[in-house]
Amino acid sequence: MKVKFIGFEWLLGRGISILDLLQDMAQRPVNADSESFILLDVQSEWSIGAVIRVLDQRRWTQILRVSGKLRITAEELAHNANIAHVNFFVINTLTGRGLYEAYHGGTSLNLFCHQVKEHYKDLKKRRIQGAVKTYLEEGRPGEVAERAARKDFANSFRYALLERQGAFLNRVASLSALKSLSFESVDYAPDEQAYRPLAKHASRISHRFSYGPEGVSPNKVIKALGAAISSLGARGAKVAGIDPSNNEVVYKYMHDVEPFAEHDYDDLVIDVNFSSEMPVSELRKTAVMKELLATALQPEILARLTS
Q1: Engineered SS bond to 87: which of 51, 68, 75, 109, CB 3.0-4.6 Å?
Q2: Contact, 239 vs 181, CB < 8 A?
C-alpha cells in the first residue's frame, strides 16, 4: 500500500497564531478510551504530530500463499487491543504549512483539518470570552466590549491543499498534442452582448479553448497556462490532449493533488512503538517522521512550506 505526503496550509483569523493553536491542542488531555485523538510535539520551528483513529474491530482476515495454493484465515487481536489508523504530520509553526501522511483507510487530510477547525472554534470562543471580561473590567459598556472582543478575533479557520503546479504543467508539457483546455473564473465578461445578462448572475463562468482535431504543441501555450494558473488560481483547470502513446487523456489541476513524496506503508510503520507514558517528541525517532521531516527540508519543498 502506498503512502502519500500531501501538502496543506492552515489559515487563521486575527488574534490566534499557529503556535497558539498547536499549544492549546497539545494541552488537551488524551482520553485512552477515546476513538479519535491527536498527539502533538510543539516546537518553535517544526512541530510534529499524529492523528489516531481507533476502530471498533479486533478481527481481520489474511491470505497465505504456499506452493501455489491459497489459504484464508481469520485472525484476532489480544483482548484489550484494537486496530488503529495512525497518520503522522509535520507543520511549520511559523507559516502553518506542512506535510500530512495519507493512505487508504486512514484519516483523510480533510477530516483531520476539520477536527482542527473545531478546536480552533472552541479556542476562539474562550479567547473572546476572556477579552470581553478584560474590556468590562476596563469599564467599557457590555455591547462595546462584546464588539471589540469579536473584532480582536475576527475571521475563522480555513485550510487548503498545497497543489504542485509544476507537476501539473510537466504532465501537460509531456503531451504530444494539446486539443483543448478549460478553466473557471469569477470575473469574466463575455464579448457577446447576448451572453452578458446570463453571466451577470453566474458565480463562476467556464472558459474553453479548443485547438482543433489535431491539437497544438503544448510548448505553444504552456507558458501562458502557467501564468493563468499563477494569477487566477485557475479553478477547475482541465486539459485534454494526446499522450506520447497516442491515447486521449484528460488532466485536471484542481482536486488532482500531486503528493510531495510517496513511500511503501510497510517501510514507514516498521518501527512505530509508542506509549502514552512517553513524551510525544519520541515520535520524531520513527521512520515515518524522519521521512516527513527530510521531505519538508528538501530545498524546493522547504521554500514552499516556509516562504
Answers
A1: 51
A2: yes
In tens, the pLDDT along 46-79 reads 999 999 998 888 887 888 898 888 889 888 887 7
Identify any residues that bridge with 134 across adjacent strands, giving them in sequence order: none
- What pTM did the predictor assign? 0.72
* CA dist list (Å): 104 to 10, 85, 289: 23, 10, 18
Confidence of residue 255 (pLDDT cuts 50, 70, 90): very low
Residue ranges of the domains in the chain? 2-57+74-123+158-162+258-306, 165-252
Do residues 185 and 35 make contact, with C-beta atoms less than 8 angstroms apart? no
